[in-house]
Design brief:
By secondary structure, the protein is an all-alpha fold. It contains 10 helices and no strands. Helix 1 packs antiparallel against helix 2 and helix 9 crosses helix 10.
């Protein structure tokens, strides 16, 4: 259940990636079987804090090898369960409003089974930074109605630090805007203009 070697084979993170992929393949259908499998694997005490990048350092794996491992795994290597989940949401290319409550429940389930909202010092970014990046990506690709604010509130309730810095010395809100405005095309500009036109940033977040 908790064998993570070689990196990219950890069952929990692979299941989370598969869950998001299944949502994208069938955007009108809730991936119930994957969600049920997630509940089972967490109840079987799957760890939520495995840092696959740290494992690659221990094995002296090169960046090219990490890319190869990610391709073989069909997902990016993750630093935690929440990171794996938000990486999946970042790369997701569909968004349906009816799916939001199920995605929120997945986030809460991970937190209830010990996933750290605060993250750890040996990772490039905290779950809050990861969530802000995922939110920005969804807005840039045109899913302006993608509302991840419930997950944001969950992370804050479970101890995430809104003033924490990532490895690029960015606050979570900076991470959102740098990713938003650093994206190519009109998506980031449209999302930014919408944010400026509101009196409440929560209408975007």
């Amino acid at each position: 259940m908790n064998i993570a070697d070689p990196p990219g084979t950890f069952p929990l993170y692979s299941l989370l990636a598969s869950l998001i992929q299944q949502k994208d393949y069938n955007p009108s259908k809730v991936p119930t079987s994957h969600i049920n499998a997630l509940d089972i694997i967490l109840r079987a005490n799957a760890r939520t804090d495995v840092n696959e990048l740290k494992l690659t350092n221990k094995r002296d794996i090169s960046p090219a090898d990490i890319t190869a491992l990610s391709i073989d795994a069909g997902r990016e290597l993750a630093t935690s369960a929440l990171n794996a989940f938000f990486l999946g949401l970042q790369s997701s290319d569909t968004w349906r409003v009816h799916m939001a409550e199920h995605l929120d429940r997945i986030c809460l389930t991970l937190l209830e089974h010990g996933a750290s909202a605060a993250g750890s010092d040996d990772v490039p970014s905290s779950p809050l930074h990861d969530l802000m990046r995922a939110t920005a990506t969804q807005h840039v690709i045109g899913h302006m109605h993608a509302d991840l604010s419930t997950m944001l509130r969950m992370l804050l309730y479970f101890g995430a630090d809104p003033n924490g810095l990532n490895s690029a010395s960015q606050y979570p809100i900076e991470c959102y805007f740098s990713h938003l405005l650093g994206s190519t095309g009109m998506g980031g500009l449209i999302a930014y203009r919408r944010w400026k036109a509101t009196n409440n940033a929560a209408q975007v977040f």
